[in-house]
Amino acid sequence: MDHDKMSTVPNTNSKNVLNSDVEVKGTLKFSGELTFDGKVDGDITSDGALTLGDNAVVKGTLDVGSVVVRGKINGNIVAKDKIELKAKTELFGDVRASKLVIEEGVTFVGKTEVNPNKVAPTPPVVRNAEPAKPGTPAKAPGL
Where are the chain's structural domains? Predict the structure, then answer.
């Protein structure tokens, strides 16, 4: 790939860094990659990759392509690809992703939905579907 040519296409490979002295109130949107080590009171949305640092404090929903989580999160995380919860992370909220990695030492209070193949639950197989005749005891399946 030739990086010298000018392009009108937005740079989706951009790497952005917001350090621990940054505080955001509202929705934070980005493309490409973002390393965030500050405080957010609001949602973070992107199709890109988010990395939260040890000092990160987030009160809101993360809806991203993928995320590496450190710091303290109070809200749900949805990732199109992968969520990685690193040691010492404190997460109070639900997670949903295709892949989930949780290191030892994570505090996680919430529900998970990890479904890499988008599998739908299969309905239980009903055996002996004939209704019992009045006056006869019903038979247990397999007997």
Answer: 15-108
